[in-house]
């Protein structure tokens, strides 16, 4: 019997950090709406402060560190991609369009041939 392992937040401190991040984010939203009489600059400042504080709190948690490590590894791998030259990309695009056109023509001819065979020859519905 196969068992599936689910990764969860391991320590109470990590759970507290994630809960604090959520509360800071909610606090930013609440501050945005409660400070509507103070002007838009104060509103957006409260929202931005809550968002930045929540991001920092998430970043220092174990889940945040794993996410940051994943993003770094992904960025490192994306830098290794060898992109084709412009002429090669255009040439491959034209090959794809040509292949699609030939396949569309083949499927259309097959469809019309089977239509003629079944409806005209075998069933005789169209005369």
Automatic annotation (TrEMBL):
Transmembrane segments: 18-35, 41-60, 89-109
This protein's UniProt keywords: Cell membrane, Membrane, Protein transport, Translocation, Transmembrane, Transmembrane helix, Transport
Name of one Pfam family that matches: SecE
Any one GO molecular function term: protein transmembrane transporter activity
Compartments it resides in: Membrane
Gene Ontology BP terms: intracellular protein transport; protein secretion; protein targeting; protein transport by the Sec complex
Keyword Membrane in annotation: yes
GO CC terms in record: plasma membrane
Protein name listed in UniProt: Preprotein translocase subunit SecE
